[in-house]
């Protein structure tokens, strides 16, 4: 069982388009069950392409694509005089640590299910 991502967001650095792979069909069913027990909200981690400048295209998460904009003069002026500190909002997409924490829970759940018998491993050799 492995966890993959397609890349990282250019603005916030969170992983994009997360998916899991397994050779064992029983493990795949357990992953589906665990997703129902402890759901993972990954819609903000979908991969989107955003245009920077005239000809630069970068991969970003949905949250950054929708909310992050270049700060205008009014916001910069307010920061200079100490009216506000934040220029941009915190992204809503899940970070690497949050996803790995969920994955550790999934591993424990699968180990508990395969308590008395070993997990079947297929080899191509
Ligand atoms: Zn992002």
Walk me through the structure.
Strands 1-4 form a two-stranded antiparallel ribbon. Strands 2-3 form a two-stranded antiparallel sheet. The chain has helices at 25-37, 62-67, 73-80, 96-113; strands at residues 2-4, 7-8, 15-16, 19-21, 47-52, 56-61. It starts with a strand and ends in a 12-residue tail after the last helix. The mean pLDDT is 85. It is built from four helices and six strands. Strand 2 (7-8) and strand 3 form a beta hairpin. Helix 1 (25-37) crosses helix 4.
Write the layout of secondary structure elements.
Blueprint: E1 2-4, E2 7-8, E3 15-16, E4 19-21, H1 25-37, E5 47-52, E6 56-61, H2 62-67, H3 73-80, H4 96-113
Helix pairs in contact: 1-4
The structure holds zinc ion.
The site of zinc ion has 10 residues, from strand 6 and helix 2.
Comma- or semicolon-separated keywords:
two-stranded antiparallel sheet, binds zinc ion, 125 residues, alpha+beta, 4 helices
